[in-house]
Design goal:
It is built from two helices and six strands. The strands form two sheets. A four-stranded antiparallel β-sheet has the order 2-5-1-6, with helices on one face. The chain is flat and about 45 Å long.
């Protein structure tokens, strides 16, 4: 089953060296998962200050800078994995460095109609 692991954290809690270490450690986990056929994709996101949001309301496009949600934790990256079950997804999520300073949300992905079920 495919899962998306959404990484949430307070961007201000990370030093440059911590962010660099996090990426190195995360890439090692991704390489391990890829060798096992469980990694599909992952990427950190640029800071929330670079975000643009688009909304359609009554047929009119609204474009604003950033999501500016009322929270200190922002979406900072994602992983897409293909594993047997939620327990395996949880085991991977707890290994990820961002889980130590933020939150890793695990969400199952709906299969697309043209995508064969696992």
């Amino acid at each position: 089953m495919k899962y998306m692991l959404l990484i949430y954290s307070d961007e201000s809690r990370w030093t440059d060296s911590e962010r660099e270490s996090c990426m190195v450690e995360s890439m090692a986990i991704c390489k391990e998962l890829e060798a096992e056929g469980k990694w599909i994709a992952s990427s950190p996101l640029h800071p929330v200050s670079t975000a643009t949001s688009v909304r359609l309301r009554e047929g009119k496009r609204q474009i604003t800078d950033g999501p500016f949600a009322e929270t200190t934790e922002q979406l900072g990256g994602y992983y897409i994995i293909d594993v047997d079950d939620l327990d395996e997804a949880i085991a991977i999520a707890e290994r990820l460095p961002p889980a130590r300073k933020g939150t890793v949300e695990i969400r199952p992905l709906f299969p697309l109609p043209s995508e064969p079920e696992r």
